[in-house]
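During the reporting period the student researcher (J.K.) took over the structure-prediction task from the postdoctoral fellow and processed the backlog of single-chain submissions. One of the processed entries is reproduced below for the supervisory committee.
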Amino acid sequence: MLHIYCPYCGEHRSEEEFHPKGQAHLTRPADADACTDKEWGEFLYFRDNPRGLHHELWVHAAGCRKFFNVTRDTATYQILETYPMGAAPQVVSPSHTQQP
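J.K. obtained the following C-alpha cells:
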C-alpha cells in the first residue's frame, strides 16, 4: 500500500484517500475557437503514458478534497514528490517542459 503525502494537509495518508486524475501540467489552448478539430481532440484525449517518471494530477478525495501534483515512477510505483497546484516540480522528467 502506498502512503501519499498531501501538500495541503501536511501528512502521509493511505492511498485509499486519494484518486489519480490524469496527466499534470496540461495547458488548455488559449483560443479554443481557433483550434482545429485535430488540435482540440489531441488536447482532450491524448496523454503521455511513459514508462518511468511521470507528473500526475491527484485529488485528496477523503481528506481536504484539494488537487495536487505527484511525480511518480510508473515502473516502480515509487512517489518521488508531491507538490501543490501551480508549483513547479523539483524532479523533472525528460519529457516535461515548463509552460510560462
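The committee noted the following: The first strand starts at residue 3 and ends at 5.
J.K. will present the remaining backlog at the next meeting.
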